[in-house]
Design goal:
The protein is an all-alpha fold and 268 residues long. 77% of the residues lie in helices and 0% in strands. Helix 3 packs antiparallel against helix 6, helix 5 (109-126) packs across helix 6 (133-163) and helix 9 packs antiparallel against helix 10. InterPro entries: PrsW (IPR026898).
Amino acid sequence: MHRHVKWRLWQARWFRVWVLMVSTALGMAVVFEATGNQAVVPAAIFYGAAAGPVAMLVATHDRTGVGERVPPASLLSTFLFGGGVALMLAGLFDASLIKDEHGPQILAVGFIEESAKLLVPLGIALTGQYLTKGGGVALGLACATGFAVLESMSYGYTALKAGGLVQAEGTLLVRGLTTPFSHLAWTGFACAVAFGVWERHGRVVWTAAVFGGWLLAAVLHSANDSLLSIGSLPAWRWALYLIVAAISYSLFHRATRGLRPYEVGLPA
């Protein structure tokens, strides 16, 4: 039974992607430790930061087929520039408005970052393109992935300076394991709600459901960050963190469970 479960896990495409990317990151770290060649350091940080988000994308696409709803060039642009713009704006407002990350101001993080990550998907929606729930989830996940990878890379470089590349990879591995319960889940949920409404109306409209989806994502994001900002978490706060994580993923999964991959071989 145990062997059967392990084999089924290896059959999952997302798991193989995650293992290969983590292995590549660790291999880069081994090369650096053995040779001192710093040329491999950026690649080690990138693969470590991207492993979790990319695995989450693959798992979601295999379950829902959202990657088929938007052309690859548009998804790549949203990943590169949407994620970059979101991080740039979040970095600006986080630094301007949050002076003490251990104080109550940390509760603003979710509202800032979820707004920043939705900016590019909203801009695309306003052009009238990809106004379907599947298209919106694809755009939201692409933008959130860009944001998550870039943000994790910053944590990786901070850990690199403090304790070396091995410590940096450990930090990135832990962050990657939280991916299904954080940035991609929050933004994916908000986009599923908003684009689902816009698909029914045929245009961008502002309804209580659209606002409520963004608000719930922002509240969960802020709750997550506020719990993690506490230096030493007592048991009850760890329990709260796990509850927030479970709610985050459950909402995303529920909001996207009606989406299915296109049937191969059937006429369009």
